[in-house]
Amino acid sequence: MIRETIVTTQSAAGEAHVAPMGATLVEGGYLLQPFRPSRTLDNLAARRACVVNFSDDARIFAGCITGRHRSWPTVPGTKLAGTVRLAAALAHDEVEVVRMEDDPTRPRFFCRTVHRETHAPFLGLNRAVAAVLEGAILVSRLHMMDSDRVDREMNYLSIAIEKTAGPAEREAWDWLCETIADHRARAVS
Questions:
Q1: 31-35, 49-53, 125-129 — which is least confidently predicted?
Q2: CA-CA distance, 93 to 118, in Å (whole number)?
């Protein structure tokens, strides 16, 4: 099973990095597979630790993918040195890398959960949060997908936005739509 999460890492110099990532559940922790090149990959290789954050704020996912976001505040991890977590996380798992399998495209980091903590109750998701998450995945793959497919999928996802979105989900959705429009404008010019 893959959980859509926000992974926070720190560079060797201590700079925090926030990135959405599917975290595959494995016995005792997670398998993380960042693409080359990425700051998450560099930070995981350098620090051998990170935090898997759980959030229901669609803006964090969309904001990271589109670059249309404010800085997402982080705080130090609780147990694992050299880690930071999202200040707004509902919960987090601090993990350490126990094994890395190199790959030219997506190295595999097998991580063991060292500490798990809950910060706020999970009150459920509305369909708009799921739609924004799926839209963010589409936006991350614009360079690989034809525009007709993107339009079909975004049109379908917009139903959930229209029916269930609150202000945060609408803001995140707008970021995604603006990014698609910008991508197409650059392709034409």
A1: 125-129
A2: 9
